[in-house]
Amino acid sequence: MNNGIFLLLGSNLGDRAQNLETSRNLIQQTAGRIVKASSIYQTAAWGKSDQPDFYNQVIEIETLLDPDTLLQTTLQIEEHMGRTRTEVWGSRIIDIDILLYGDVIVEHERLKIPHPQMTNRRFTLVPLSEIASEVIHPITRKEIRELLLICEDQLAVVKV
Ligand SMILES: Nc1ncnc2c1ncn2[C@@H]1O[C@H](COP(=O)(O)OP(=O)(O)OP(=O)(O)O)[C@@H](O)[C@H]1O
Ligand SMILES: Nc1nc2c(c(=O)[nH]1)N=C(CO)CN2
Predict the structure, then answer these.
(1) 7,8-dihydro-6-hydroxymethylpterin-pyrophosphokinase domain: which residues (predicted)?
(2) Residues pairing with 107 in the sheet
(3) Domains in the chain, number
(4) CATH number for the domain including 49?
């Protein structure tokens, strides 16, 4: 069983809380058990600001799937839930990002772990810090709580 795997869930269309719940259920059915879940946060849209606020949540899972298969599985869940890819950083029913996979570093075109943007995003670091503050980011070698302290993003992140 592989441990220390953290996923970011995000939704800013439709019933956002319900969308997160549906994705958690599908993840448990297809990828593995959820061992920890952060609170849900309402977060201002990052990157492309003229869109509704997101709900974001970080979960920790244990899984037998390797990183590539985990990505295929999360992409299938997004498709199953009706997500269409229209624009980069645009609105979406559900987005599932693989943030960390233990200490594993992956550098492919289709898959990069740790997620390259995670250190720049309070909407990721705040919920991740809630459940994994002392986990070490395998590239920067810093704890998540320290990455949050030095993160320059100022966008609002509020517990729902
Ligand atoms: N760690 C990762 N987790 C999820 N997808 C990844 C990861 N690394 C690379 N990808 C690739 O990114 C694609 C998803 O792009 P998507 O449209 O969701 O980007 P985005 O969510 O708009 O932007 P961002 O990746 O900055 O959050 C996937 O098809 C996948 O191949
Ligand atoms: N607050 C917030 N902003 C975003 C999010 C997200 O999940 N939350 N996802 C994005 C896609 O990359 C772009 N912008």
Answers:
(1) 7-132
(2) 112
(3) 1
(4) 3.30.70.560
Question: Which pLDDT tens digits describe the chain residue by residue (160 residues)?
Answer: 988 999 999 999 999 999 999 999 999 999 999 999 999 999 999 998 889 999 999 999 999 999 999 999 999 999 999 876 667 777 789 999 999 999 999 999 999 999 999 999 999 999 999 999 999 999 999 999 999 999 999 999 999 9
Which of 96, 91, 115 minimizes the C-alpha distance to 105? 115
Domain that holds residue 116: 2-159
Query: For atom 9 of ligand 1, which residue has the closest CA?
Result: 111
How far does the centroid of ligand 2 lie from the alpha carbon of residue 135, in Å? 22
Q: What number is the ipTM of this complex?
A: 0.96
* Token duo for residue 23: 């994705």
Of the residues 56, 96, 97, which should be mutated to test ligand 2's pocket, given the most ligand atoms within 8 Å of the CB? 56
